[in-house]
Inverse folding.
């Protein structure tokens, strides 16, 4: 095998025959494998079994004089706010506890921005002539979809190794119609990079034209190292405060990938003024979120140190999967020279750029061979990757052996799509 | 004591002195009692302690091939949908399972109506020149607040013993700006009445001018008898279907007052077409609700028959409290002849109409004496009771002895406010 770009047509044809045969053989196995979503594996869910029994008696339900079973405490239990404050390195008055999913709080924030406006909005966003939202890409499709749902124009911002291209961001926020930006600052979805300190500082020091510009700081993978030790990360909330823009950022996090993806608990962190503003709005929709589940989590996860210890058990399950992805790509794709990818040390994804114009085709081939992947384009606004090149690999769900099979087929499909393109077949 | 209306000024003055002395004595006790909200008592929460341990092992988390701990099943677990279908007497495909609070699903429905429209909307409600919403009153303040929050004009509809005045409703829905109505059809909040079969049938046969008119059918107390046997109630969904308007109604319910007020699980029921429409919208905000909590509930509550048995334990706690309210009112207020109230057999409230123009004053006096009540006016749109007469009594939270103390003060305050009014002091 050698670099496709350097091959003659005859050599490419020969390679095509060989790759095609391998594809057909893979397809004949009638596999049904899934690398589409960042779903934790069963072995990871099993790690948190004790969570189920940390609140078992009626006495267990009382904490700090509050009965977790009854209505009340819209902001969340004191101990739950303190727990998240320690994890996110902010103060407990900066914390609002949500339900099982942080995505739902993000949706509610944007939804309320549209119908009622944010703290510094001159009017609800639905009354603006146009709202634009910055989408560092490749990024998370569910983020982009929320702002698309409310009719915002999504603007792609390129990502580099230190985070979103801040020259571009600083230039775009001069437009008063630009109302915010989506960020996954640590182990970014899908590129896996950690925003550099310089990037974080430039975010805190943004001078947007819109008074209600909001940084949607989804710190989904804040403690999700699977290789090496926990890496501390700057607290964006105090940085924004120091920069004189305390209300510009809202941070989100959850235990979906710490305990149970379908039954964790989530948090929003922001300035005390923002929290007070949202409590007023959120009080219309609910009396309180599930405090028993909050209590269960705090009793089980205890504190930051204990949670980071717990995350090492996840790491032991995740690391071999990411190694399997990396090894397959190194072995099968590196020699062909048409694709680049990252090797993250945390988070849930590998981001791969294949030969431009072949990502969709490669994933269609995967599907044909029984391997489901995140749809090509999903990592760009409107699901449209202008290069048709980026693919998000989500290796968490399948066991390693299945993953190896799936990666084998995936690599074959990448090559087949590239060869089809080069040969114009 | 005798009927105030028949007393001379001297007799009224004498009564005033005596009632005032009783008020001062009550106030001197420095009590802190609460009859403000329909919060279950600790003894009721204790009834469901076993719920905490019905899902305790990793094996417990798997049901019908689904791992309740992971992402997925936006509509809810199959068994959870079947559970609610049996309770509400509809089909499981009519059911969407939400989070802990049905109020949040109601909010989301109205919120999405505003930003995106309902299934048959010609445009999102925010693009309508005006939206009007019918509020049978006295009614539930949190319902009214949701539609007020989105800028709807709230229109009061009088309540009678069979439900909302349907002559008024049928007339108002001829206005195409009237987009919906709030209903608590069984043990109505606060009047405690059950909509008659004729009322329910007239609802199903409404012919509103607005194609997207929605009946918000909050069946919050569907199995909440505290006196007598469970009373079956017609299924509004099939009635609307028979009447050729299958998408006109959305029903809501939850276990907030069956298991834990802060950790129950909720359901929305509607036509399959409506459910499909909302699943599309709700899929933007969340991947799935807490399925472990759904499973916990289904394992604990089992089915309708078992749930109704469980509700009898609530009844044993609730009935003496409602008797205490009724006895205090009969003994202290009935002879004075200036107030009327209901004696419900289910639900969470007693609705009392005191002398017009004295409700606010009576509750201010209550507060002064350490008894917190639902604010006067709360049962009317915008918190404005045109008669300043209706008061909602919520006797569930305090133990019977405290409740008797609170009712003694409450009755004294009702009388004092009435006497002040009659004497113009």
């Amino acid at each position: 095998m050698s670099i496709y770009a350097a091959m003659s047509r005859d050599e490419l044809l020969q390679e095509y025959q060989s790759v095609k045969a391998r594809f057909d053989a893979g397809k004949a196995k009638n596999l049904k494998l899934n690398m589409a979503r960042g779903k934790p594996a069963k072995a990871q869910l099993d790690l948190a079994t004790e969570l189920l029994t940390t609140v078992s008696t009626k006495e267990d339900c009382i904490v700090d004089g509050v009965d977790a079973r009854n209505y009340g405490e819209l902001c969340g239990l004191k101990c739950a706010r303190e727990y998240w404050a320690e994890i996110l390195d902010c103060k407990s008055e900066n914390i609002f506890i949500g339900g099982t999913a942080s995505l739902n709080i993000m949706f509610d924030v944007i939804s309320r921005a549209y119908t009622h406006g944010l703290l510094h909005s001159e009017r609800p966003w639905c009354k603006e002539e146009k709202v634009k939202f910055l989408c560092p890409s490749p990024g998370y499709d569910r983020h982009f979809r929320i702002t698309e749902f409310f009719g915002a124009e999504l603007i792609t911002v390129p990502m580099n190794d230190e985070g979103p291209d801040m020259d571009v961001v600083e230039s775009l926020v001069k437009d008063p119609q630009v109302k915010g930006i989506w960020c996954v600052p640590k182990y970014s979805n899908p590129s896996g990079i950690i925003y550099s300190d310089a990037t974080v500082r430039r975010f805190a020091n943004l001078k947007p034209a819109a008074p209600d510009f909001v940084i949607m700081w989804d710190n989904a993978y804040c403690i999700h190292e699977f290789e090496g030790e926990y890496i501390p990360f700057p607290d964006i909330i105090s940085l924004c405060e120091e920069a004189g823009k305390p209300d510009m950022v809202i941070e989100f996090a959850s235990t979906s990938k710490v305990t149970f993806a379908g039954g964790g608990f989530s948090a929003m962190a922001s300035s005390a003024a923002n929290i007070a503003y949202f409590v007023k709005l959120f009080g219309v929709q609910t009396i309180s979120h599930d405090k028993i589940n909050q209590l269960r989590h705090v009793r089980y996860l205890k504190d930051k140190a204990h949670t980071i210890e717990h995350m090492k058990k996840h790491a032991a399950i995740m690391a071999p999967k990411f190694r399997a992805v990396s090894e397959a790509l190194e072995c099968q794709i590196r020699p062909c020279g048409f694709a680049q990818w990252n090797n993250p040390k945390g988070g849930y994804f590998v981001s791969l750029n294949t030969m431009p114009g072949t990502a969709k085709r490669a994933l269609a081939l995967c599907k044909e061979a029984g391997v489901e992947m995140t749809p090509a384009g999903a990592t760009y606004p409107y699901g449209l990757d202008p290069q048709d090149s980026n693919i998000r690999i989500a290796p968490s769900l399948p066991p390693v052996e299945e993953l190896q099979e799936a990666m084998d087929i995936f690599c074959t499909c990448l090559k087949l799509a590239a060869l089809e393109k080069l040969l114009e077949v």
